[in-house]
Design a protein that fits this description.
The protein is of the alpha+beta class. It has eight helices and 14 strands.
Length: 470
């Protein structure tokens, strides 16, 4: 085909239906020719009978040709279609003898010396610009003075009869309409049947597609091809090989990040300890600035290491038991207590707003604590001194609300991506909110972001609310 069909269903339908349409048109063409032949055969028979009726009224008496065309001959052509009847009789010398029209001569007239009783031919001609069907009958006349005497052939008399084509065209149109109506209904029925067969045939593919779409995004297990058509088995086998390779690569990456984070954690902890000891020793102002810079770098590196470990734990969350009940109210209270010293040090008011006695979900307390802790840490890290950070819990879920500078609109669809930090200038790994999203997804929680978010502490165009919706 000259054009490409992206849909397999459409391609199958086109390849099956279009040839059927072509065959139907070819069949209609030959059916039209057959209809024309059938109409001509029927009406030519009537023309022949009329010509024979005229011929039977011809007499040869005393060498003179006598003719009397009865009215019954014209009755043969009376119809309500509007066709008109014409006739003409020519003598032995092809001279006009009688008739109601001067009909055209046939293109290949028969020779007068033909010695048998009748010869008839049919042709399409025109009379005064009007299409007609012409029948030419060659009729032999004999003369005998006595009944038992030998007859003598005198020659051939030409009888021409013709009619206009209204009746024939009406019959042809009727046959063609009936034929096309039947073939159109048949084509429509076949198209509907083909569509049903295609849908039923492709149903396993659709079911397979839905099954893949409903798979957990971390599920890289191989696909069972036993319930699928054998034509799909090679494709499934190739896909399973790809999934196995992908699983190995993912596991290798997880192991690498986990091992690297563990290996980095201890050296940076030692560096922090040594920096702390160095600060207790007397030093010049210039050296003090260097030590402070080294301390900040160590804090940032330790935080990145911890976040990498958290990300590793979050990615392995699918391998952890997520069926245990966890009360988000009790968990949030404990986390506020853990982060309270950090908030006090930063001059931020950290509190809780609990609107339900308990909010229990199924999951891992370790991962949920990591998720909510990252939300609290993110709010404390980006809010200025004097801000308010509130953990709000209601029957819809848990939210962390702050009255900080907010998140610019152009960044809101990127903040949950790994290593995205925006342009706030604050140090960070850029992994906190991506960890939140990963853990929320494993617990079937929906993450919602609103910024700016107005509350009793925030100013216009400021404030952020990140929610974990049940």
């Amino acid at each position: 085909m000259m054009f490409k069909l992206k849909s397999l269903k459409q391609a199958l339908l086109a390849w099956l239906v279009l040839p059927l349409v072509g065959l139907t048109l070819i069949n209609a063409f030959f059916s039209y020719k057959n209809a024309v032949d059938a109409a001509n055969a029927a009406y030519d028979r009537s023309l022949y009978i009329a010509a024979r009726t005229v011929a039977e009224e011809l007499r040869l008496k005393d060498g003179q040709l006598q003719v009397e065309v009865p009215q019954s001959a014209t009755y043969l052509f009376e119809n309500n279609i509007g066709s008109r009847f014409f006739y003409e009789v020519l003598d032995f010398e092809n001279k006009h003898l009688v008739g109601n029209a001067r009909l055209p001569n046939p293109e290949d007239p028969a020779q007068n010396h033909v010695n048998y009783f009748s010869l008839v031919s049919f042709q399409d001609q025109e009379l005064n610009g009007v299409p007609i069907r012409l029948a030419v009958l060659k009729h032999s006349l004999v003369e005998s003075s006595q009944p038992k005497a030998r007859t003598q052939v005198r020659g051939l008399v030409t009888i021409k009869v013709a009619e206009t084509l209204e009746a024939r065209k009406s019959l042809i149109s009727h046959i063609l309409r009936e034929l096309l109506a039947g073939q159109t209904l048949l084509l429509m029925g076949l198209t509907a049947l083909i569509w049903l067969v295609i849908n039923k045939t492709l149903k396993p593919i659709k079911g397979f597609s839905q099954a893949l779409a409903n798979r957990d995004e971390a599920d890289l297990s191989t696909i069972d091809s036993q319930s699928l058509p054998k034509e799909l088995v090679p494709f499934i086998e190739s896909l399973n090989i790809y999934l196995s390779r992908l699983t190995n690569l993912v596991n290798l990456r997880k192991r690498f990040i986990g091992n690297a984070a563990h290996q980095l954690r201890t050296p940076w902890a030692i560096v922090k300890t040594q920096v702390g000891l160095a600060k207790k020793e007397p030093m010049t102002d210039e050296l003090s600035k260097i030590i402070d810079g080294l301390s900040k770098t160590a804090d940032t590196s330790v935080r990145l290491t911890e976040q990498l470990l958290s990300m590793t734990k979050a990615e392995h969350g699918y391998e952890i038991d997520l069926s245990k009940p966890v009360d988000l109210v009790e968990l949030s209270k404990n986390l506020v207590m853990d982060y309270y010293p950090q908030a006090q040090k930063l001059g931020i008011d950290l509190g809780v707003d609990i609107q339900v006695p308990e909010l229990v979900i199924r999951g891992s307390e370790l991962l949920l604590a990591e998720c909510i802790g990252n939300l609290i840490d993110n709010a404390l890290r980006y809010c200025p001194r004097g801000s308010h950070v509130t953990i709000q819990i209601d029957r819809h879920g848990l939210s962390v609300i702050d009255n900080g500078p907010g998140i610019p609109l152009q960044y809101q669809d990127k903040v949950f991506n790994r290593f995205f930090r925006g342009d706030s200038g604050e140090s960070g790994s850029g992994l906190g909110l991506s960890i939140v999203k990963e853990i929320a997804l494993q617990h079937n929680l929906r993450v919602a972001l609103e910024s700016p978010y107005l509350n009793e502490f925030s100013e216009p165009q400021s404030g952020t609310k990140i929610s974990l919706m049940i």
